């Protein structure tokens, strides 16, 4: 089976330069591209083969980028503000889309990237930037399970051998990457954060995927997302799957995504009007 081509580039955004990789389908696409938003420790490289497989399976362009401070993008010194999810949606993402000439997209976010996908769809609902959105293992609020999982991860990376796994992908930014996650989410002042207000503004169709063994949040998360969005929504719980469904069962994830987007493209799920 033929594979489409991929390309790499750097895009200037407020605050620095971000690394972008784009996978093109074999045939010219007729549907909006998917833009992948990585998790708190992630980067383009850590999506591994999933973007190429997704592009091939769906016949769509797939875009992934390293957020500022991550992977091959510019370094950051300051700790993220408590508005970092909204800031990504308000500042960086529209700048990326403008640079790439993207007028309509499907944001597909994993973990905190899923929260960013929701914020993007909400903040840009008037211009209908998002034709639909996919939130995988997203946290719409904070549970004790979330805190316990992050504390366990912080302890895990206190071992230099394990910290080396982050350094492999983030270089000298690795310690900043870890602290940006753990110290933000474990801050008592962040405990009341949630996506409830944003979800009310989401008018495009929403797919929330979640593993029933996710160590950072219960199945209350996808049910809350699907139940709170203003547009058509669907929650899919994957059995015996943890926090990274696209690695643990990529074939199933692609089946779920393909079925959802077929319904969106076929008009079964539509964007509601404001």
UniProtKB/TrEMBL annotation:
Task: Report any Pfam family annotated for this entry.
Answer: Abhydrolase_6
Span-the-membrane segments of this chain are none
Q: What is its EC number?
A: 4.2.99.20
Q: Where is the AB hydrolase-1 domain?
A: 34-254
Q: Which GO terms describe its molecular function?
A: 2-succinyl-6-hydroxy-2,4-cyclohexadiene-1-carboxylate synthase activity
Output the superkingdom of the source species.
Bacteria
Q: Which UniProt keywords apply?
A: Lyase
Q: Does the record bear NAD in its keywords?
A: no
Keyword Lyase: yes or no? Answer: yes
This protein's name:
2-succinyl-6-hydroxy-2,4-cyclohexadiene-1-carboxy late synthase
State the organism named in the record.
Answer: Zhongshania aliphaticivorans
């Amino acid at each position: 089976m033929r594979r489409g081509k991929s390309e790499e580039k750097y895009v200037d955004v407020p605050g620095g330069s971000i690394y972008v990789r784009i996978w093109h389908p074999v045939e010219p696409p007729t549907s909006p591209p998917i833009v992948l938003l990585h998790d708190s420790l992630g980067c383009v490289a850590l999506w591994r083969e999933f973007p190429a497989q997704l592009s091939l399976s769906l016949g769509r362009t797939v875009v992934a980028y390293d957020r500022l401070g991550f992977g091959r993008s510019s370094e950051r010194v300051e700790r993220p503000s408590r508005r970092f999810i909204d800031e990504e949606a308000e500042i960086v993402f529209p700048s990326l889309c403008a640079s790439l000439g993207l007028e309509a997209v499907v944001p597909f976010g994993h973990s905190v990237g899923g929260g960013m996908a929701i914020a993007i769809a909400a903040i840009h609902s008037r211009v209908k930037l998002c034709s639909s959105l996919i939130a995988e293992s997203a946290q719409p609020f904070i549970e004790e399970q979330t805190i316990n999982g992050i504390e366990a991860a912080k302890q895990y990376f206190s071992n230099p051998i394990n910290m080396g796994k982050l350094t492999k992908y983030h270089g000298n930014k690795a310690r900043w990457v870890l602290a940006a996650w753990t110290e933000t989410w474990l801050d008592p002042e962040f405990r009341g954060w949630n996506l409830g207000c944003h979800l009310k503004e989401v008018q495009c169709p929403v797919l929330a995927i979640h593993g029933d063994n996710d160590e950072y949040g219960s199945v209350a998360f996808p049910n809350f997302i699907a139940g709170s969005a203003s547009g058509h929504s669907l929650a899919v719980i994957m059995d015996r799957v943890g926090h990274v469904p696209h690695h643990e069962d990529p074939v199933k994830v692609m089946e779920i995504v393909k079925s959802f987007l077929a319904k969106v493209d076929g008009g079964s799920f539509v964007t509601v009007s404001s």
